[in-house]
Amino acid sequence: MSKRKTGRELEHRVKAILEKYGYQVHLTQYSFTSRVDAQGNRIIRSFSNDIFNCIDLVAIKPNEKTLWIQVTADHSIRKKLIKLQDVNWNFDYSRIWLIVGRRNKKHKQQAIDRLDIYDLLPDGGLEKIGHIFRGKIYLEAGGESD
C-alpha cells in the first residue's frame, strides 16, 4: 500500500473513533486534476487540502477545546512537527495532536493497529499523552480532555 493510501486509511480510522467518542469531525478532502499527455494517456494527480498545510482533521465537542489533528505513519514525524510549529496556535481554545501510526519493525507489511497520541506544547515540544488501540482512546493522566 502506498504511503498516501496508508495515511488516508489512518485518517478515516481516527475520524471514526473520534465520532464514536461524541466528536463532530471534519476530514480534509483531496483535490484532483487530470490532463492528457503527448501520447494520449490520461494522467490524474491528487493533492491534499490540509488546513494550515498541516492539519488532517478538526474535531469539536461541547465544552472541550477544538482538536486540530495531524495523522501520520511513523515516517516523516520531524517534518510534520515542523509544520505544526509554524502555525500560531491559540492554546487557550485549541489542542493540537500529532497521531502517529506505528508498525512492528519485524512485520512491516502488517497493518498499523496502534496509534500514539502526542500533544503539541506551547513551547513547540511534543508530549505523549496516550494511544489508540482496537478502536479505543487511552489517555494518560496528563492527557485527559477538558
Structure explained in plain terms:
With 146 residues, this protein is an alpha+beta fold. It has a single domain (3-143), classed as tt1808, chain A. It contains two helices and nine strands; from the N terminus they run H-E-E-E-E-E-H-E-E-E-E. The chain is globular and about 60 Å long. The model has no long low-confidence stretch (mean pLDDT 86).
CATH level 1 name? Alpha Beta
The tally of helices reads: 2
What's the architecture, going by CATH? Alpha-Beta Complex
CATH topology: tt1808, chain A
Our Rg estimate from Cα atoms comes to: 17 Å
Beta content: 35-45%
Q: Please estimate the helix content.
A: 10-25%
Class inferred from helices and paired strands: alpha+beta
What string gives the helices and strands in order?
HEEEEEHEEEE
Short description:
With about 150 residues, the protein is an alpha+beta fold. It contains 2 helices and 9 strands, in the order αβββββαββββ.
Short key terms for the protein model shown above:
18% helix; 2 helices; 146 residues; 40% strand; single chain; alpha+beta; tt1808, chain A; 9 strands; two-stranded antiparallel ribbon
